[in-house]
Design goal:
about 190 residues; alpha+beta
């Protein structure tokens, strides 16, 4: 994971309103990823980011049973049924307390700024709440993630594993409780030491 870029491929320019009149704004149909979606998820991440790093990360996380959380990888289907957006939550820890890391999030370029990213992230965070997850962490664009309730993680005493900007390292209480204090440990696949 290289700096802030790794968590926000589709959000460089935001993802809330359509700027392209040729692309309809939905409706989006978020749902859990299925095995049949693996190739589409890779295509989305390859198209949304400048390198294959995030697509490779998703593949590595999918193969890591200590990181992968069944039911917490979501796609949002375009009206024609084609997956257009992807968001993933995997296991991380705040010191020794389990939490989830939101990364990567990606939208096919032709569907960016149409609400697809919002739809898939909102559905994924709700699925995490239902699954009993308590705290979500994201490293991403400060203007984008507060719409989901994320705030600077430092407010909770949650520290990044590397010196990242406070405004980009964010946390969300999924259940309304006070998140644990400590340093975040990501899955090995992220390559963050």
């Amino acid at each position: 994971m290289s700096g802030v870029h790794a968590s926000h491929g589709s959000h460089e320019s935001g993802d809330s309103d359509s700027g392209d009149p040729a692309v309809p704004p939905g409706p989006w149909h978020p749902r859990p990823e299925t095995p049949a979606d693996t190739a589409a998820v890779r295509r989305i991440n390859l198209a949304a980011f400048e390198t294959a790093e995030e697509a490779d990360l998703v593949d590595a996380l999918r193969g890591d049973p200590s990181a992968w959380l069944p039911g917490l990888s979501y796609v949002a289907d375009a009206p024609d049924g084609t997956p257009a957006a992807h968001a993933l939550l995997t296991r991380c820890h705040v010191d020794e307390v389990p939490a989830v890391a939101l990364a990567p999030c990606a939208v096919l370029p032709g569907y960016q700024k149409c609400g697809a990213g919002d739809a898939v992230i909102r559905a994924l965070l709700e699925a995490a709440r239902v699954a009993g997850e308590r705290t979500a962490i994201v490293l991403g664009h400060p203007p984008y993630y507060p719409r989901f309730g994320f705030v600077p993680a430092a407010r909770f005493g949650i520290l990044p594993p590397q010196p990242w900007p406070d405004e980009a390292f964010l946390a969300l209480s999924l259940d309304g409780s006070t998140p644990p204090r400590g340093t975040v440990r990501y899955a090995e696949s992220f390559g963050i030491g």
